[in-house]
Design goal:
- InterPro entries: RING-box_E3_Ubiquitin_Ligase, RING-H2_APC11, Znf_RING, Znf_RING/FYVE/PHD.
- With about 150 residues, the protein is low in regular secondary structure.
- Helix content is about 10%, strand content about 10%.
- It has a domain of about 70 residues: Herpes Virus-1 (2-Layer Sandwich), CATH 3.30.40.
- The chain is built from 1 helix and 4 strands; from the N terminus they run E-E-E-E-H.
- The strands form 2 sheets. A two-stranded antiparallel ribbon has the order 1-2.
- The chain is elongated and about 75 Å long.
Length: about 150
């Protein structure tokens, strides 16, 4: 059985905060509810955004977080870096295998849009010893861009 408790924080005429529901259960947050099942899915509802509220110290609850689920999202931004992702040398300079910059050390682009020095990516794909080498940055199958 799930127990729900709605408590609204309001201020009295002196500006002191009072609970509109005075008969709320007197227990700490980490005490289990009746018939609480630890394996159930926890889907919190978004909290209502309000101004920060300072509660009297006798109403503060100690919270112990047993599980925390975090999600993140990211993406590569094209053209954000002007260095080779393998040797970390600038594209205007030559890679570690070349003696002078220019046509002997061309810049190549993969289908995933990641640029590398030609010598660096060839050495990288040869070292993988797999039929389908991967891009060192995004791990997609490496194919030269058309």
């Amino acid at each position: 059985m799930d127990e729900e408790m709605d408590i609204d924080v309001v201020a009295d005429e002196n500006g002191q905060q009072v609970n509109s529901e005075q008969d709320a259960p007197n227990r700490t947050i980490d005490e289990p509810l009746e018939d609480e099942d630890d394996d159930r899915n926890f889907n919190p509802t978004p909290a209502v955004r309000a101004a920060p509220v300072e509660l009297p110290s006798n109403t503060r609850l100690k919270i112990k977080v047993n599980k925390l689920f975090v999600t993140a999202e990211w993406k590569w931004i094209e053209g954000g870096d002007d260095t080779c992702g393998i040797c970390r040398m600038p594209f205007e300079a030559c890679c570690v295998d070349c003696k002078c910059p220019g046509d002997e050390c061309p810049l190549v682009l993969g289908q995933c849009k990641h640029p590398f020095h030609m010598h660096c990516i060839v050495k990288w794909t040869d070292a993988q010893n797999t039929p389908k080498p991967q891009c060192p940055l995004c791990r997609q199958e490496w194919k030269f861009a058309d």
